[in-house]
C-alpha cells in the first residue's frame, strides 16, 4: 500500500514536472529549447511526456481552428483587398524601378564624387592623426636636437638637464615608436659622452691653472703690496674691513662669467662682487686669467650623474699632485730674487685658486683639505727656504728675500692661512742676514783700512770742516779756534768707519721691518748685531792691520789715536740706536754696546805692536854695531850706529806727541830698557871671550850717549832721572870696571845703599874673566921667554883675587 502511495506521489511529481516543461516550451524562444528537451530525455518518463505533448498540441490545434473559423470572413475580405492592391503595387514598383534607374544614371557622378569625398575624408583623418602624432613627437625631436646642439657647443650641464627632461617627460609619451627606443638606448651613451667631455674640460682647466698659477700669484701679491702701501699711507685713518677688501681684490683675478645655465653662476658672481661700491683700480688683464666654469659644470654634471664623490676624489688627487710639483723649488732658485719670486707666485696662485674653489663650491674642497695642503706646503716651503737661503752670500739678496717672504705671508694671511711659522723662520734668516752683513762689512772695513793714509785729515775751509764733523761726532774748541788750514787728529778711516757702523745699523733695521716685532726686540736685535760687528768684524780688521808686517810706527801711532776717538764715539752710537728704536738705554733688557772694549783692545794691540816694532828697529841698529873688543885706543865719541839709533828714537818719539801720555812714556821706557838690555847682552855675549879696557871705554861712551838721550826728555811727563834708570845696570857695571873700584863693591855688597847695588856678581865675574883672558894673552905675546913684569903680575894677581871673591859671593848667594 505504501508502495502504491509512493508510486502515486511520484506520478504526481512527474506530471507536475511535465507541465512545467511544457509551459517553458511555450514561453521560451526556440533557440533556447534545447536544454529543456535535454531535461526530458535525461529522465525515464519521456514516453508519458510525449503523450502529454501530443495532447497539448491537439488542444492548441482545436483553439486555432476555433479562432480561424471566427475570423475567416475577415480573412477573405483581406485577401480580396490585397489582390486589388497588388496591381497598384506593380505600377508603383515599375515607377520606382524607372525612378531608380534614372536616379542611378543621374547619381553616378555623385557617387564618384562621394567616393572621392570619402577618400578625402579618410586622408584628412589620417593627416589629422599624423599631425597629432607628429605634434606629440615634435617636442621630443626638438629636445633631442637641442641636446645635440648643446653637446656640439660644449654646454654640457644644460645638455644634461635637457637629457633629463627628454628621458623623464617627453620620451614616455611616445615610447611605442622605434626612434624613441633608439633614443632611449642612446641616452646612457650620451651621459657617458657628457661625463667624458666634462672630465676632459676639467683636465684642461687643471692644466690651465697650473700654467697660470704664476700669473695668479703675481697678481695677488701685487694687490697685497698695493693694499699694504695704501694701509701705510692711511695708517692714521684705518678702514674697517680692509682685509675683506684685500681678499675681494684678489678674487677679481678670476673670470666669473659662468654660463647662466649653471646653478652656481649667480652665487659665484655674488661672492666675487662683494663690496662693489668700493671701487678700486684692478690690475689690468686679470679677469681673463682663469675661467672656473669648467670645474663648476663638471661638478654639477657629476653631481647629477650621482658620481660627485668620484669627481671630488679625482679633483683633490690631481691638485695634490700639482701642489707637490709647485712646492718643488728649482735647483738654482737661490741665485736670483726672480727665482724666489716665481716660486712664491706659484704657491700663492695655487692656494688662491683653492680658496676660490672653497668659497664658490659646496663641498668640492673643504677647510680640512685646504688646511692639510697648507700644512704640507708650509713645511716644504720652509725647508726649501732654509736650504736655498743658506747659499745666499749677498745681504741685499737676503733682505729682498725677506721682503718677498713677508709679502708672501701677508698675501696668504689675507686668505685665512696661518703664517706664524714663516715669521718664525724669518728670525732664522735674520741670523743669516746678520752673518752676510758682517762678511760684507768685513770687506768694507778692510778696504777702508787698506786705503787709509794714516795721516791726520787736513781741512782748508769751513765747509770741509763741517763735512767731517757731520760724518763723525767730534768737538774740540781749541781746534775750532785755529785758523785754516788745520788738521783733525784722526785720519780718514775714523769718519768712514763711524759712518759704516751707522749704515750697518740701518741695514739691520731694514730687516726688522714688517716682522711684527716689538721695539724692544728690534732694539735688542740691532744691538746684538752691532756688538758682533764691533767685537768680531771691526776688531779682526783692526787686528789684521796692526799685525801686518809692513806696518810702520807712524801708522800704529795713528791707529791708537783713531781708536781713541772711535772709543769716545760709542756713546753717540748708543744714542743713535735709541733714537731709531725709541727704546731707552735704561730699559732692563737693553743690551749694551761693546765698542769701548773693542777699541781698547785694538789700541792695546797697537801699543804692544809699537813696543815690538821699536824693539825690532833697535835690534836692526844694534846689528850694525861693530866693536873692536881687542882695541887699545881710547875713543872720544860714540859709535856711529848708536848716534843713528838715538836720532831715530828722537824723531820717532817726536811723532808720539798726539798719543796719550802713558802710551808715549811706556813706549819710550820700553825702548830704553830694551836698548840697555841689548847692550848688556852685546857686552856679555859668549862669542866675545876677551876684551880690553880700551874697548870698554868706547862702550862706555855709547852708554853715555844713551844716558844723554834719556836726560834730554824725548817724551814729556817723566820725573827727573826716571828714564835714566833704564841704563843704571850698565852704568854701575861700567863704573865698577873703569874705576876698578873692587874694594868698595866687595865691601858694600849686600848693603841696601851700596854704590854698585845693580851689579850682579855673575855679570861682574863674566866680564872680569874676559879682561883677564885678554891680559894673559897680551903678557904671553910680549914676554914669550921672560917672566911677567912686576906690575902686570900684581894686576893679574888682583884680578884672580877679585875673581875668587866674586865666586865666593856667587856660591854664598846660591847656598
TrEMBL record:
A Pfam family this chain is assigned to: EXOC6_Sec15_N
Function: Component of the exocyst complex involved in the docking of exocytic vesicles with fusion sites on the plasma membrane.
Species, as recorded: Pipistrellus kuhlii
Protein name listed in UniProt: Exocyst complex component
Coiled coil, from the record: 82-109
Keywords: Coiled coil, Exocytosis, Transport
One biological process term in Gene Ontology: Golgi to plasma membrane transport
Cellular-component GO terms for this entry: exocyst; plasma membrane
Residue ranges with Acidic residues bias: 273-283
Listed InterPro entries: EXOC6/Sec15, EXOC6/Sec15_C, EXOC6/Sec15_C_dom1, EXOC6_Sec15_N, EXOC6PINT-1/Sec15/Tip20_C_dom2
Residues annotated as domain Exocyst complex subunit EXOC6/Sec15 C-terminal: 421-770
Amino acid at each position: 500500500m505504501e508502495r502504491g502511495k509512493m508510486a502515486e506521489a511520484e506520478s504526481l511529481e512527474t506530471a507536475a514536472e511535465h507541465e512545467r516543461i511544457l509551459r517553458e516550451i511555450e514561453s521560451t524562444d526556440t533557440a533556447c529549447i534545447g536544454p529543456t528537451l535535454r531535461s526530458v530525455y535525461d529522465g525515464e518518463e519521456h514516453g508519458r511526456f510525449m503523450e502529454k505533448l501530443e495532447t497539448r498540441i491537439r488542444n492548441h490545434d482545436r483553439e486555432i481552428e476555433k479562432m480561424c473559423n471566427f475570423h475567416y470572413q475577415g480573412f477573405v475580405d483581406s485577401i480580396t483587398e490585397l489582390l486589388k492592391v497588388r496591381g497598384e503595387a506593380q505600377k508603383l514598383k515599375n515607377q520606382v524601378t524607372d525612378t531608380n534607374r534614372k536616379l542611378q544614371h543621374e547619381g553616378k557622378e555623385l557617387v564618384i564624387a562621394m567616393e572621392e569625398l570619402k577618400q578625402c575624408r579618410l586622408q584628412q583623418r589620417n593627416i589629422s592623426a599624423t599631425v597629432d602624432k607628429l605634434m606629440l613627437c615634435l617636442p621630443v625631436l626638438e629636445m633631442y636636437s637641442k641636446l645635440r646642439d648643446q653637446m656640439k657647443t660644449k654646454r654640457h650641464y644644460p645638455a644634461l638637464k635637457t637629457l633629463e627632461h627628454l628621458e623623464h617627460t617627453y620620451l614616455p609619451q611616445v615610447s611605442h615608436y622605434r626612434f624613441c627606443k633608439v633614443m632611449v638606448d642612446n641616452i646612457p651613451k650620451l651621459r657617458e659622452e657628457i661625463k667624458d667631455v666634462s672630465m676632459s674640460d676639467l683636465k684642461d682647466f687643471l692644466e690651465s691653472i697650473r700654467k697660470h698659477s704664476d700669473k695668479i700669484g703675481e697678481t695677488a701679491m701685487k694687490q697685497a703690496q698695493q693694499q699694504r702701501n695704501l694701509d701705510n699711507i692711511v695708517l692714521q685713518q684705518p678702514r674697517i674691513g680692509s682685509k675683506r677688501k684685500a681678499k675681494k681684490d684678489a678674487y677679481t683675478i678670476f673670470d666669473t662669467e659662468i654660463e647662466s645655465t649653471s646653478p652656481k653662476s649667480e652665487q659665484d658672481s655674488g661672492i666675487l662682487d662683494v663690496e662693489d661700491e668700493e671701487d678700486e683700480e684692478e690690475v689690468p688683464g686679470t679677469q681673463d686669467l682663469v675661467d672656473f666654469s669648467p670645474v663648476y659644470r663638471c661638478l654639477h654634471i657629476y653631481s647629477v650623474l650621482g658620481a660627485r664623490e668620484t669627481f671630488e676624489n679625482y679633483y683633490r688627487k690631481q691638485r695634490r699632485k700639482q701642489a707637490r710639483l709647485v712646492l718643488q723649488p728649482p735647483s738654482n732658485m737661490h741665485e736670483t730674487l726672480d727665482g724666489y719670486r716665481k716660486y712664491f707666485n706659484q704657491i700663492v696662485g695655487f692656494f688662491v685658486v683653492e680658496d676660490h674653489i672653497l668659497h664658490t663650491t659646496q663641498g668640492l674642497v673643504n677647510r680640512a683639505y685646504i688646511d692639510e695642503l697648507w700644512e704640507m706646503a708650509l713645511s716644504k716651503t720652509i725647508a726649501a727656504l732654509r736650504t736655498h737661503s743658506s747659499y745666499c752670500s749677498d745681504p741685499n739678496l737676503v733682505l729682498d728675500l725677506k721682503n718677498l717672504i713677508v709679502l708672501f705671508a701677508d698675501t696668504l694671511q689675507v686668505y685665512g692661512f696661518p703664517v706664524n711659522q714663516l715669521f718664525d723662520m724669518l728670525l732664522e734668516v735674520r741670523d743669516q742676514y746678520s752673518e752676510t752683513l758682517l762678511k760684507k762689512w768685513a770687506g768694507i772695513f778692510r778696504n777702508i783700512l787698506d786705503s787709509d793714509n794714516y795721516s791726520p785729515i787736513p781741512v782748508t775751509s769751513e765747509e770741509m770742516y763741517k763735512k767731517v764733523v757731520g760724518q763723525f761726532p767730534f768737538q774740540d774748541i781749541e781746534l775750532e779756534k785755529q785758523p785754516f788750514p788745520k788738521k783733525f787728529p784722526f785720519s780718514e778711516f775714523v769718519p768712514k768707519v763711524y759712518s759704516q757702523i751707522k749704515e750697518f745699523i740701518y741695514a739691520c733695521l731694514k730687516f726688522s721691518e714688517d716682522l711684527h716685532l716689538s721695539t724692544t726686540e728690534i732694539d735688542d736685535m740691532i744691538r746684538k748685531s752691532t756688538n758682533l760687528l764691533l767685537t768680531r768684524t771691526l776688531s779682526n780688521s783692526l787686528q789684521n792691520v796692526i799685525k801686518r808686517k809692513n806696518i810702520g810706527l807712524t801708522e800704529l801711532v795713528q791707529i791708537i789715536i783713531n781708536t781713541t776717538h772711535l772709543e769716545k764715539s760709542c756713546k753717540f752710537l748708543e744714542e743713535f740706536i735709541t733714537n731709531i728704536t725709541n727704546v731707552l738705554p735704561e730699559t732692563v733688557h737693553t743690551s749694551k754696546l761693546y765698542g769701548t772694549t773693542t777699541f781698547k783692545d785694538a789700541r792695546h794691540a797697537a801699543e804692544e805692536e809699537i813696543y815690538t816694532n821699536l824693539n825690532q828697529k833697535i835690534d836692526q841698529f844694534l846689528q850694525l854695531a861693530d866693536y873692536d873688543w881687542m882695541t887699545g885706543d881710547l875713543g872720544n865719541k860714540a859709535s856711529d850706529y848708536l848716534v843713528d839709533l838715538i836720532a831715530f828714537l828722537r824723531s820717532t818719539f817726536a811723532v808720539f806727541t798726539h798719543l796719550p801720555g802713558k802710551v808715549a812714556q811706556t813706549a819710550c821706557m820700553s825702548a830704553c830698557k830694551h836698548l840697555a838690555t841689548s847692550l848688556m847682552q852685546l857686552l856679555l855675549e859668549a862669542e866675545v871671550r876677551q876684551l880690553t879696557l880700551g874697548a870698554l871705554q868706547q862702550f862706555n861712551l855709547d852708554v853715555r850717549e844713551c844716558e844723554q838721550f834719556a836726560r834730554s826728555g824725548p817724551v814729556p811727563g817723566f820725573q827727573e832721572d826716571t828714564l835714566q834708570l833704564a841704563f843704571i845696570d850698565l852704568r854701575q857695571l861700567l863704573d865698577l870696571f873703569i874705576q876698578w873700584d873692587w874694594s868698595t863693591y866687595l865691601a858694600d855688597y849686600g848693603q841696601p845703599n851700596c854704590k854698585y847695588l845693580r851689579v850682579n856678581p855673575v855679570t861682574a865675574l863674566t866680564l872680569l874673566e874676559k879682561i883677564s883672558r885678554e891680559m894673559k894673552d897680551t903678557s904671553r905675546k910680549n914676554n914669550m921667554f921672560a917672566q911677567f913684569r912686576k906690575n902686570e903680575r900684581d894686576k893679574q894677581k888682583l884680578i884672580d883675587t877679585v875673581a875668587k871673591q866674586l865666586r865666593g859671593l856667587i856660591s854664598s848667594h846660591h847656598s
